[in-house]
Amino acid sequence: MAEEVSVEKRPDYSVPPVIRAFALLRHIAAGNRCRNISKTSKALGINRTTLIRLLATLEAEGMIESAGEGNGYRLGTGLIALASEALNERSIVQVARPYLRKLVAELNLSSHLGVLDGREIVYLLRETPNSHLASNVREGTRLPAHATTIGRMLLSQLPQVMLRQLYKGATLDSFTEKTRTSLQELEQQLDQDRMQGIAWSQANFEPGIGSAAVIVYDHLGSPAGAVNVTGHASDFALDSGNLLRIETALKAVAQEISEALGYRGWASDQM
User: Fold this and answer.
1) DSSP H or E segment with residue 217
2) What's residue 39's pLDDT?
3) Rounded CA gap, 226 and 153, in Å?
4) Angle at 149 between CA 147 and CA 154, to 5 degrees
5) C-alpha 161: how far from its chain's center?
6) Which SS3 state, helix, strand or coil, does residue 253 take?
7) What is the C-alpha to C-alpha distance for residues 115 and 120, in angstroms, rounded to an integer?
8) What does the angle CA 230 – CA 205 – CA 250 come to, to the nearest 5 degrees?
9) How many CA atoms lie within 13 A of 254 on its CB side?
10) pLDDT at position 7, please?
């Protein structure tokens, strides 16, 4: 006779009026103006009188506002400000750390998060495996953007006119024989990085070190930074058999971080 397993039911603390209020907010956020109260009441399954009270309450609290005479309602500045504050609380470092740890555990490679500051990148976060080959790059380290995978991915997102203005009269230092040292060569490399959605390095910046990086987007769809993985150059060699595994894991983590920051563009990106 099979042993019976008792599953304790979690208490239901949901509050129906709050559920109805959120249903109404989502309805308006989807572009429904609620011009016709009876039609909206039927669509949401909310009593007409209750719906009118909900609309009045949400408007009084600044969650919705009138879209003009006879044009119904739209989301209000109060709700927009609330959402903005919530997103600001979820700083990219705070959000990214557990995902970078997951990436390190999966690939056994060091991982970093960096942002662009002029012609340099600044490392904001570093996670390493328990290995003698772990990265020695620290938070706060600055490196030249043109020579690093994080920098290349972030530069690849700039309009051409901004990129050329940024490097006007600048010297692109060489770190290995693979470093691009002219703006024309760099632009060609950035075009390839942007097209592939990933920047690869087989000892482009530092002898014996390989790397790959991808972009992380914020809730506005703008580049918020980039994440990379680094390790021995042999792990990033074309014949290593690792490239697909690295790319898949790296892009998956970048997507998770972006979505945690509020980005919702992945579906349209794939269309």
Assistant:
1) strand 209-217
2) 94
3) 7
4) 95
5) 25
6) helix
7) 9
8) 30
9) 30
10) 39
Q: Which residue has the tokens 């680094």?
A: 230
Q: Which two tokens stand for residue 55?
A: 């609309």
Question: Does an H or E element contain 189, and which?
Answer: helix 183-196
Contact 142, 189 (CB under 8 A): no
Dmax (CA) of the chain: 82
Residue 126, strand partner residues: 112
Please give the pLDDT value at position 138.
81
Rg (Cα) of the chain, in Å, rounded?
25
Residues of the chain with pLDDT under 50: 1-8, 267-268, 270-271
Rounded to an integer, what distance in angstroms lies between the CA atom of residue 249 and that of residue 255? 10
Q: Could you identify the residue written with the tokens 């690093």?
A: 148
Instruction: Note whether 55 and 28 are within 8 A (CB).
Output: no
Q: Which two tokens stand for residue 169?
A: 């009269």
